[in-house]
Specification:
The structure is a single chain. The chain has 521 residues and is an all-beta fold. It contains one helix and 39 strands. It has one helix spanning 12-22; strands spanning 50-56, 60-65, 71-76, 82-87, 92-93, 101-108, 114-120, 132-137, 141-144, 154-159, 165-170, 178-183, 189-191, 198-206, 212-218, 223-228, 234-238, 246-251, 257-261, 269-274, 278-280, 286-291, 297-302, 308-314, 318-321, 329-335, 341-346, 353-357, 363-365, 379-385, 391-395, 398-404, 413-418, 428-435, 443-448, 455-463, 466-473, 479-489, 494-503. A hairpin with a 3-residue loop joins β24 and β25. The protein is globular. It starts with 11 loop residues before the first helix and ends in an 18-residue tail after the last strand.
């Protein structure tokens, strides 16, 4: 479900498909000191500060967070494949084993249910198996959902709190065989009806009233926005004033629908549709990324030079420009019902920085709100925001959860691995900074250098919750090495950080990229 009561970045699969179809608290409180006290001091931290929880030490492609502070995410593993992880509030769980699988996250609801697609990987023929739909929860475990054809993929963008999943399923390998579908809470598959004269169909979202929205394609290849009621009866809304079509991507409890008009043309733009008020648009070149229960849409406006500017739009207030004047680019990734949005911004010559915007437009660099971060940890982009203000973000230490008010877990918090040298046949130095809110814990660490010798003890220096891991190693053969650091406290809780190092090689490391997502390949 993408009403954003508790969520989230729109499922990347949905954005990829939408791009394929469409063509392309106020944050003003004083910042807490970046090196503020941990432990008992966190109880007295300013309200506008975030504790840090490591999720996975790698690039994330999709993230969701629900009203319970649980998070689901899609990330790139050491095997270079995409995998789905779930954070239950204390630890990360893999709904389906990462070994020999590729998984793409669909959605997360407030009950902790995940919907995703996955397939087994044959190293000799990576695309020999199809993407199959699944649901998972801690209470009910993993269940494979039915699909329309053994030869076709499935795609899932949304699940509501009633456990109903919507998306598309294909009867074959031809993209034209895609049909909008709905899976009941009991895992029964229903094809959403297409009105006469329409062919290809997709369902993008479903609200708590079990009303779904999406698109159907006419004989001329034009997309029309469509709404299916709770009994799956379709109503074609049409092209809504566009020329090249309309795609409905989000809906809320009030009946508002948001999406894109005229995809694939220079006139592509976001729209907001309401049952009694028709269509409104924030203006040209606007891309929508979310709709909340207040009837606000958020997204970015693309300027003629290609740069993006973050915006919030509603019928009541019109267009609110969220772009910080001192920066070159800003983009929103997620919006909650309080009108708080998160995303990324950067200067023309600067690095990406994770940002948060209030409904009034006040912008905050989230790096200024971190409670006692490990050395080297910086936030590059905020991906998802929950109803309570918790945030999932990309960082230099991988994917992290930011807990409002300075909260966290009892596991150590690790910064990135500092390993600047990659020479052969001489000792190389590794360091890593960490924090622990339990200031009385003792710590040990190990490093697996990726050369077949297994984890080796590392030196730990720590005092009152702040520490550093250091280790030295000599590589005698050239090649790519996955270096894995594990820090464990005296209660047995541990956190892992890893990086890839090219030892004795001059080539620039290739980016760790995922296999193409469904509908994007």
């Amino acid at each position: 479900m993408h009403i954003l009561r508790s969520k989230t970045l729109r499922a990347a699969g949905g954005l990829v498909l939408a791009a394929h179809l469409a063509g392309f608290d106020d944050g003003t409180r004083a910042a807490a000191p970046a090196n503020g006290a941990q432990g008992a001091g966190a109880l007295h931290a300013p309200a506008d500060v975030y504790g840090i929880v490591n999720l996975v030490p790698s690039q994330a492609l999709v993230a969701h967070i629900n009203a319970s502070g649980q998070a689901a995410f899609e990330y790139i593993g050491l095997d270079y494949n995409a995998h789905v992880g779930f954070f239950d509030g204390q630890r990360v769980i893999h709904p389906i084993t990462p070994s020999n699988t590729v998984s793409f996250l669909g959605a997360l609801n407030d009950r902790g249910e995940l919907a995703f697609v996955s397939r087994h990987v044959d190293p000799n023929d990576p695309w020999s198996t199809n993407l199959q739909p699944y649901r998972w929860s801690a209470a009910r475990g993993l269940a494979r959902l039915p699909s329309l054809g053994a030869a076709g993929d499935s795609w899932i963008p949304a699940i509501n709190n009633n456990g109903i999943v919507v998306g598309a399923s294909y009867t074959g390998s031809d993209p034209a065989t895609g049909r909008a579908v709905r899976w009941s809470a009991a895992n029964r598959l229903t094809v959403l009806p297409r009105p006469p004269g329409f062919d290809l169909s997709y369902a993008f979202d479903i609200n708590e009233r079990n009303v779904s929205v999406g698109s159907v394609t006419d004989a001329g290849g034009i997309n029309h926005a469509v709404r299916w009621d709770s009994a799956n009866r379709p109503t074609v809304l049409g092209i809504l004033g566009g020329v090249r079509g309309a795609i409905a991507m989000y809906n809320n409890e009030r009946g508002d629908i948001a999406g894109m008009l005229d995809g694939g043309t220079p006139d592509a733009r976001a729209f907001l549709w309401s049952p009694s008020r028709g269509v409104a648009t924030p203006g040209p070149n606007a891309v929508v990324v979310g709709l909340n229960e207040a009837g606000e849409i958020a997204g970015r406006i693309i300027s003629p030079d290609g740069a993006s500017r973050a915006f919030l739009y509603s019928r009541a207030r019109g267009l609110v420009d969220l772009h910080p004047a001192s920066l070159a680019v800003s983009e929103i990734n997620s919006l909650n019902d309080a009108g708080v949005s998160v995303g990324v911004a950067w200067a023309s010559q600067g690095e990406r920085r994770a940002y948060r915007w209030s409904r009034t437009g006040a912008a905050v660099d989230l790096n200024t709100r971190l409670l006692n971060p490990p050395a080297g940890l910086t936030l590059a982009s905020a991906l998802a925001i929950a109803a309570n203000g918790d945030i999932v973000a990309e960082s230099s230490a991988g994917l992290v959860l930011l807990r409002r008010g300075g909260g966290g877990t009892d596991a150590p918090v690790l910064g990135p691995i500092n390993f600047p040298e990659t020479a052969l046949n001489r000792p190389l130095q590794l360091t890593l900074s960490f924090r622990d809110r339990n200031v009385g814990d003792r710590h040990k660490a190990s490093v697996d250098w990726g050369d077949g010798l297994g984890p080796q003890p590392a030196v730990v220096r720590a005092a009152r919750g702040s520490g550093e891991v250091s280790a030295r190693h000599t590589f005698t053969t050239a090649g790519a090495r996955n270096i894995i650091v594990r820090v464990t406290d005296s209660t047995g809780r541990s956190t892992v950080q890893y990086m890839e190092a090219l030892i004795g090689l001059r080539a620039t490391p290739a980016s760790r990229a995922a296999p193409a997502r469904p509908h994007g390949r």
